[in-house]
Amino acid sequence: MEIKCEVCNKEFNSQDALDMHNSAKHDSSSNKESFKISKKTLVSVIVVVLVILISSFFVFGKGLTGNDASLTGKVIAIKDTNVQNVKLFMKNNEYQVEPSVLKRGIPVKMKIDVNSLIGCAKGVVIKDFGIRKSVSKSDNIIEFTPNKIGTISIACFMNMYHGTFIVIE
Question: Which end of the chain is more exposed for a tag (fewer CB within 10 A), N or C?
């Protein structure tokens, strides 16, 4: 009884001879079983890539809302005005800015809730914009024009308390 190689149609006297031939002459990906595994792997990779692309669309793109902060739940600070009004306060020992997404090139008026700040947190530093100000109930406004895009850090004078906000184009 002769056995044929399915790939090249060469005939062999035994299964052992065919196995030796296949391992020496034919790549393991040429047999049908490993092709099915490769197909499954390919489908899995395509699904993962699609999930990543769709997720990045919502996180970094405009998502379904047309808003640059679509999934964050954070509102962009400008709505057809000449000034972006934001509030700075402390929550869980961190600086919070609301809204936390600002537009570059449009002046910001940041009102600080001094009652929420503790200790050295009343000394506010926004290094990227050259701001270093000690705030009080009678002097609780910081004004600046964001000229950089990205995540901007806020810290206290002693660098004990931190927070961030985002500046977009």
Answer: N
C-alpha–C-alpha distance, residues 42 and 44, integer Å: 5
Percent above pLDDT 70 for the chain: 78
Domain boundaries, the chain: 3-60, 84-168
Query: What is the spatial distance between Cα 142 and Cα 122, in angstroms, rounded to a whole number?
Result: 12
Q: What is the pLDDT of residues 82-100, one digit of tens each?
A: 899 999 999 999 999 999 9
What is the CATH class of 84-168?
mainly beta
Residue type, 13: N
Query: For 99-150, what is each residue's pLDDT tens digit?
Result: 999 999 999 999 999 999 999 999 999 999 999 999 999 999 999 999 999 9
